[in-house]
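User: I'm new to structure prediction. If I give you an amino acid sequence, what do you actually give back? Let's try with this one:
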Amino acid sequence: MIERLIARGCSAAIRLLTGARAFWRGCIPSSERRVYYGNHASHGDFVLIWSSLPAALRREVRPVAAAEYWQRDALRRYLIHSVFNGVLIEREAAQRRRDPVECLCEAVDGGGSLILFPEGTRNTEDGVLPFKSGIYHLARHRPELEFVPVWIDNLKRVMPKGKWLPLPLLCTTTFGEPLRLGAGEDKQAFLERTRAALLALSPEQMEAAR
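Assistant: Good question. You get back a string of structure tokens that encode the predicted 3D arrangement of the chain. For your 210 residues, that looks like this:
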């Protein structure tokens, strides 16, 4: 019960601090198993996507996060495990006890959806870095999954690196059309298609498409 109250408080706080608004352009909220994947600029990204979902869905959506960051102290461990029910992945191959894709498959097989960031690291520049292959391997092992692109705008400006207080800027999340791995689609084609679908939701691309 206490964890649920903390989760609600986190959601309310992130919306208050960022003025966050969610736009569902290509789909509507659904209890179907999905992988919400977005551009990655800060450690607050998954909280923003998670907070943008209807409250009834949040309990079933698990963020995929870097183990080395979230296991640094007791508070972070409590938040990621007990409040957000995250799936922790070791970035360094030498430190891994399990295959990351196996961990993700286990999470979705348990009935959950995921939030992940295919760039694999935070990107402080404009645009989107090339995707790592993990999203493809997950799609190959679970081809029935829907992959929903989510563009996060302004969060790195709301909370610039090294600042403790948020700036008064509006932050948005834009949810696009779900994708699935196509029959016979290879890794490079899938990575390019999912990345293009994410970039298409950026304000610049959406303005150019009008």
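You can read the tokens as a compact description of the fold. Here is one thing that stands out. The chain has ten helices and seven strands.
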